[in-house]
């Protein structure tokens, strides 16, 4: 009986020992490359990659990150996905020269293991889309919210909370070496093979418990982006969306003033549709779009209604404010760069003030051909005009009628064409 008890106790202890051991996954590592603006496309790709990694029983998902920032909503969606992932997520800021800025800081700090490549940087997470449409109290609330959010992420992952707050409040940005010293990241890796080597044997806590990563000799599965995803990701750039919007506007207006040219209208229409689609992805501000439309109307009115520059100034102000407000303030970590806004405002102003002005002047210019083009021309009477006769204008003989009743124009005298009636010229005597 005692022997049975001993065996039972020994089996129980052994069972508890094996249960307490960290579980091991398969021999696959998924790699997802995210470049450019953090957008709904980025969030969707991460969700799909996590599902694929879970199905493949992957050791981990490596997110190779290089971003200037992006949408607050998409960033938060990605952070939630990473924080609740049953598969360890390794965010690797790579290749050399890459960055994890703005929204990218939150994503990096949320990872189970944060790694950077040499020659990379991380930081500057201060909300940028707050310049227009927010008062000081609202700005403070937004910054406080972002600060609390990033601190909670850093605390959860055991990273440098003080620096995380600085990244939001002071736009602090640091190199990979500084990030390692400050405890922002776990280590530095030259490339993916070096990363896999350093991941070997690391213990990671997930919602399902602890896992020990076994990355030696694993098979890499690179998550390929579909053509549609690549196309949408390219469009999800606020600067590109803004350029497409303005080029589309130029094309439509040019076609309006020169109907039949076709090419400007076709190109403008395509650019306009693409820009509106991109702005929908990026969450645009209707007030900003309406201000840009108002600016275009003011520029066109300036050409037709003399305002001594008042309408042009109003157009420039409306276009500048509209450009600054075009991206919705709720986006927070994304905005249109001033290096694009300033030249485009200048080009658009020149376009309407000079090019469209020239086109309209050409439309209202006095005709120089046909009967209408004869008005104001000087000729010679080829016979007495009493009240009608023949005149020679531009080497051609015309039937003519004297404008004033009772006036007689002698043969050989100079005449000036006043108007035309049918095929007859109405003339008066040309004073010498």
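^ Assign residues to that structure.
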């Amino acid at each position: 009986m005692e022997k049975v008890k001993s065996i039972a106790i020994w089996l129980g202890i052994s069972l508890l020992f094996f249960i307490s051991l960290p579980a091991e996954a398969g021999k696959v590592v998924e790699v997802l490359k995210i470049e450019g603006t953090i957008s709904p496309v980025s969030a969707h790709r991460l969700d799909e990659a996590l599902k694929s990694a879970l199905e493949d029983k992957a050791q981990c998902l490596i997110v190779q990150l290089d971003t200037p920032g992006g949408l607050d909503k998409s960033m938060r969606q990605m952070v939630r996905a990473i924080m609740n992932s049953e598969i360890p997520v390794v965010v690797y800021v790579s290749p050399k020269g890459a960055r994890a800025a703005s929204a990218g800081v939150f994503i990096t700090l949320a990872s189970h293991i944060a790694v950077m490549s040499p020659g990379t940087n991380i930081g500057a997470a201060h909300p940028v889309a707050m310049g227009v449409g927010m008062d000081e109290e609202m700005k403070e609330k937004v910054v406080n919210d972002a600060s609390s959010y990033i601190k909670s992420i850093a605390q959860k992952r055991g990273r440098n909370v003080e620096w995380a707050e600085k990244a939001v409040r002071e736009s602090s940005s640091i190199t990979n070496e500084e990030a390692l010293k400050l405890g922002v990241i776990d280590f530095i890796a030259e490339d993916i093979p070096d990363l896999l080597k350093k991941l070997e044997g690391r213990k990671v806590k997930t919602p399902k418990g602890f896992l020990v990563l076994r990355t030696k000799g694993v098979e890499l599965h690179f998550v390929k982006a579909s053509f549609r995803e690549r196309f949408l990701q390219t469009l999800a750039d606020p600067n590109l969306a803004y350029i497409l919007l303005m080029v589309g506007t130029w094309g439509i207006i040019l076609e309006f003033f020169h109907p039949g040219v076709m090419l400007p209208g076709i190109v403008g229409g395509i650019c306009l549709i693409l820009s509106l689609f991109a702005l929908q992805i990026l969450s645009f501000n209707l007030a900003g779009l309406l201000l840009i439309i108002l600016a275009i109307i003011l520029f066109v009115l300036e050409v037709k209604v003399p305002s001594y520059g008042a309408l042009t100034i109003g157009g420039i102000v409306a276009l500048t404010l509209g450009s600054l407000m075009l991206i919705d303030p709720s986006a927070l970590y994304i905005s249109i760069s001033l290096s694009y806004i300033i030249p485009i405002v200048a080009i658009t102003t020149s376009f309407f003030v000079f090019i469209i002005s020239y086109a309209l002047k050409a439309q209202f210019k006095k005709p120089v051909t046909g009967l209408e083009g004869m008005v104001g021309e000087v000729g010679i009477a080829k016979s007495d005009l009493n009240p009608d006769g023949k005149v020679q204008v531009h080497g051609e003989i015309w039937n003519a009628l004297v404008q004033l009743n009772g006036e007689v124009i002698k043969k050989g005298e100079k005449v000036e064409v006043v108007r035309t009636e049918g095929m007859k010229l109405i003339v008066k005597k040309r004073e010498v």
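The longest helix spans residues 338-364.
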